[in-house]
Structure formats: structure tokens, C-alpha cells
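Example record

One chain of 188 residues, shown exactly as stored in the release files.
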Amino acid sequence: MRTVVVALILAACVFACSSGASETAAEPLQCDDDWAEIVELLRSGIPTYDYDAADSLQALIDNSDVVVIGTVDSVRRVFVGQDNGATIISSSDIEVLRGATPAGPMTEVPYFSIWNQDGDDPLAKGVDVDGLSFIAFLLESPSSVSGYTPNIQGLHIACGRDSLVTPVIEDLPVVPSGATIDELVALI
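Predicted C-alpha cells for this chain:
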């Protein structure tokens, strides 16, 4: 299943992930005030996955090449053709918790998504975000700028490191009830 995820991101990011930041909206979304909208935007365009779920947090960690935390600065979606795209989380403070530190600075976490609904894509121009933290369990993806993409169960957000995490793609394997980013970091 790991190969399927990497292949999807490879197709989406060959060109798009290196295209640079887009112009973003004037007013940033605030994590506490705009939580529902942020979650909806991050989940928009994600396909349904058929995958073998990790049966424990340790299995997710072991199956990940790198585990990172950071603060989301902005989110945008880029496209390659009509059928491939990626949502890109931009961050100026990504910290590697486990795994090899990338050769260059890691500033983006891309994952497969495509806007195929009526109307304008709400992430086409990018959206700035304030106060949103994330933890990501990443797999190598040579075609993306960061060199990595999240494991299906490996992208979680919260309003600060001491708030409960919410999955972007799929839930974490069994973890302590109501885990925060700081609690997950302590388990890594």
C-alpha cells in the first residue's frame, strides 16, 4: 500500500510541488475561531483509500521514514493536468522527531487531493492559517519538494501542541484517548 500512496503523490507533484507558493487570501484563518473551516479545507479533495491500517502507533512509526511536527503557515492546492493534484501544507518551522533529517530545509508537506466539484477551488489561491499545529508520519516521495508525503494515517492537526489531534486523512491507530501532539511526541 505504501507504494500506491507514493505513486499517487509522484504523479501529482512532479511539477506542481516545485511551482512555489501561491497568492493567499488577505485574512488568515484563526485556528480556534475557524476550526471547522480549516478541517474542511484540509480534507477537501482527498480520495477514499483502500489500505492496510497500522494496528498500533508503534507500527505507524516503524512504517514511516520520518516523523515531523510543525506549525501550518498556509495551505494551497496545485494541479498537474485535470486528474492529478496535491494539497500542500507550508510551514516555516518543521522539526524532525524521528528519521533522517532531509538534506535541505523541509518547508512543505504535500498530499494527494484534487478539486473536482462545481465552483472554484477554495485552496486554488492558498489560505493563510494562524495557530494550527501538525504532526506528520511521512513516507519518502522523491518527486515532492520536501521528499516526503504523509502516510494515510499520518497527518494530524490541532490548535496548538497541547490540544487534541484531529486526523486529516485517516485516524491514528489505537492511541491513548484524546491524544495531543505533545503526548504523541512523548511516545515517539
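Notes: Helices lie at 2-13, 35-43, 57-62, 181-187.
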